[in-house]
Please model this.
Amino acid sequence: MSPELNFHRQDIQIEEERTVYQGFFKIKRYRLRHRLFGGGWTDTVTREVFYRGDAVGVLLYDPKQKAVVLVEQFRTGALQDPNTPWLIEAVAGSIPPGESPEQVAKKEILEETGLKVETVHPMMSYYVSPGGNSEKFYLFYAIVDASLAQGIHGLKDEHEDIRVRVFSLEECWQALETGALNNAMTVIALQWLKLHHHEL
Model:
C-alpha cells in the first residue's frame, strides 16, 4: 500500500515555537494553523509536543533454535502498572546526535546482551505516539546464537540493570495472544516476526 496524502509540510503555518520544559527530556509548545480537508485553514491551535529524540529497537532471532532473545528491565514509564514496572522487551536505545540507527542498534545489542552482530536488517520505522510525542522508532532484526545469550548487562553510568531472557517462538506467540508483552515496540517486532520467520 502506498497511500497518497493530501497535505505536506507547506500546508502548516507555525506562528510560535517555544521550549517550555528542558530536563532529561524536552517539551515544546506550538501555536500553529494547518489546512483543512474541506478547504481553508484551522484557527490558531496550541499544542505541546514531548521531545525525547528518536530510538532503535532490535529483535534478536535464532532461526536454528527457533528462539527469540529479549531483555528484562525496570521502566520508569511503567510505574503505574498494577503488576510490575519491569518489562520484557526487545533490545532498544536512543539515537545520539551523529550516529546512525544501524550503528546504535549494534552498540545496544552488545551493551544489553553481550552479543556481537555484524549486520542488522531493517523491519520498519514508525512514530510512537504522534498525537503529542515526536519520537520515531527504527526497528531492526538480527540473527544470533541464542545459546550464547545469558547474564546481566547494561551500562552502570546509565543506571541500567538488564537481564537477558530467551523464549521459544511458541512462548512468544502465546505472550502476544495473552497480552503478557505490554510494550508496543516488542509487540510490533514479534508480529513482524510471526509473518516473516519462515523466510529467515
Helices lie at 101-113, 169-178, 184-196. The mean pLDDT is 95.
